[in-house]
Amino acid sequence: MIDRSVLANPNLWLAPEHDGRHALRDAPFTRESIPYILSLPEAGIGAFVYTWVDRQNVAGFACAIFGPGVPNGPIVGRIDGVQVPADQNFDHWTVADFTLKQDLNLDKASFSWKGDRASIELAFEAIHPAYSYASDPRGCWPFMADNRMEQSGTAKGSITIDGRVIPVDTTCHRDHSWGTRDWEYAQHWKWLVSQSGTDTSVHVFQMIVRGRIDLRGYVFKDGLMSEVVGFDCDFELDDLLRQQWLQGTVTDAIGRKTIIDAKTVAVQLLPPEPTTALYEAPLSLTIDGKPGVGWVEFMWPMAQVERAKALAAA
């Protein structure tokens, strides 16, 4: 049961009805999407599942399992263009070989996928209320979504790779967005999620758009959840713009400072469409010195990535 009393600002509350499907506006680029993100540094693995649907009820699904713990390179599955019933909700969501069952209360869920080389079977349980981007006085970025939520939780179950079963009992993260998604509008972003046990979770979304740096996110620790108001960070990239490590100090609205020190386990390129590059990276990290796990996504225009590749090869 989600405890609303942990919210330092009651306006952060997101109604449970938003755990289900939304009526999408008749506008360009409208869609609804849900990913679940999992980092297993001790196994050298990062994994995510990602499903989406548009207002014509055309759905898709993508999965990636990658890292030094995955022999013979990353395992990637993707399918798009699947027509689903208009009344199929996320409490029993099926796209090809992927199934998602959310409780429609922003609390518990389960999901499974089975491919040729790998399968995933996991149960999710939230560790704090969902953070709503619309709770910010500036609202959600209109090119990113009408609204969007972020929420960390526990993940229990297993991942199987080439017959090898990897037990999972850790923390993880999910988000859910609905509305416009214009991948080309932003210049760059850093999307960071992190947990240290079940009592600490930090999310920061630092966006560079129209020449300005903007910020959303939350800190959940010491029994209180508060929105992010500042993020000072340093990081290292390789020659191909892939993130290697990140260190940052996060300031929240009640004045707390939270320090994150993260190293990537692996980096996987995910192009959601031809002009946009997402570098996905599971993390091994500490939050205020306490060990944990997380994920950081760096977005670049694909032209910059291709230019970096050309320079590295010269």
Description:
The chain is mainly beta. The protein has one domain: AttH-like domain (AttH-like fold). The chain has one helix at 302-313; strands at 30-40, 45-53, 58-66, 75-83, 93-95, 98-102, 108-114, 118-126, 131-132, 147-161, 164-180, 188-195, 201-209, 212-221, 224-237, 243-252, 257-264, 268-273, 276-287, 290-301. Strands 1, 2, 3, 4, 5, 6, 7, 8, 9, 10 and 11 form an eleven-stranded antiparallel beta sheet that branches. Strands 12-13-14-15-16-17-19-20 form an eight-stranded antiparallel barrel. A hairpin with a 5-residue loop joins strand 15 (224-237) and strand 16.
- Total number of helices: 1
Multimer state: single chain
Query: And the CATH topology?
Result: AttH-like fold
CATH class value:
Mainly Beta
Strand content: over 45%
Brief descriptors of the model:
mainly beta; 20 strands; about 5% helix; about 325 residues; 8-stranded antiparallel β-barrel; single chain
